Amino acid sequence: MATSTTGRAADPATEQTPGLRLVRLDHDTDETRTLREAVVRQRLAPEQRRFVTEAVRTLPQADTDPDRIPFAMVLADARPTDRLTALDTCAGFGIIDLRGPLRDLVDTPERAALLRAYYVTPEWQGRGIGTAACSAPLLDPLVAEAAPRAHEIVLCVNHANEAGTRTYLAAGFVPTGRTYHGGPNGPQQVLSRALDTGAHGVPGPRNERTENTQ
To answer: 65: buried, middle or exposed (CB in 10 Å: 19+, 13-18, 0-12)?
Structure first.
């Protein structure tokens, strides 16, 4: 199980969702280099690894695929300049995939983007970060920048991952009625929502971790 450099533990009953920003990791800046060092050191609990693969494996894969855009979830006021600060202020990771298995998931893959390899680290779970980071105010501008033609965001969540499903539903995703069988850990439910870059409020705290297909 991952450990924070601060030893901080989340208490869902007393802590509110912190402000966040999503930082693309496919650009070469001082900040992205620091965040890349941090995300490959993040570790998930064994039960999370049933449903998602850590950035130490998925980030190198994204680096070799121009259709995959990796990003980090970072506290809004943080501008990490060293690895320890980045580890304390980077709450999670994800990838926007413009190709992947989209042809198996939607009728118009050229107009969709896939959210994958998405997770919140154990230290930051229980504060609504997973819901906030995949809701329209944060995620959709990033998707629109990476995929100007996209009009929907889709994801796959394992049928056994009830906590992740609750998180995605709270962020506005809805089941499409399709099932994806290409993952290594059993069938996955396909969820989708329309891309929206308008003004929204960030959802309040929601429960549990978020994980989906690699």
So the answer is: middle
Measured distance CA(98)–CA(24) in Å, rounded: 15
Listed as ranges, residues in the chain with pLDDT below 50 are: 1-14, 199-209
Per-residue pLDDT tens for 153-203? Answer: 999 999 999 999 999 999 999 999 999 998 777 899 999 999 986 644 444
Q: Is the pTM of this model over 0.90?
A: no
Dmax over CA atoms of the chain, in Å, equals: 46
Q: What is the 3-state secondary structure (H, E, C) of the chain?
A: CCCCCCCCCCCCCCCCCCCEEEEECCCCCHHHHHHHHHHCCCCCCCCCCCCCCCHHHHHHHHHCCCCEEEEEEEECCCCCCCHHHHHHHEEEEEEEECCCCHHHHCCCHHHEEEEEEEEECHHHCCCCHHHHHCCHHHHHHHHHHHCCCCCEEEEEEECCCHHHHHHHHHCCCEEEEEEECCCCCCCEEEEEEECCCCCCCCCCCCCCCCCCCC
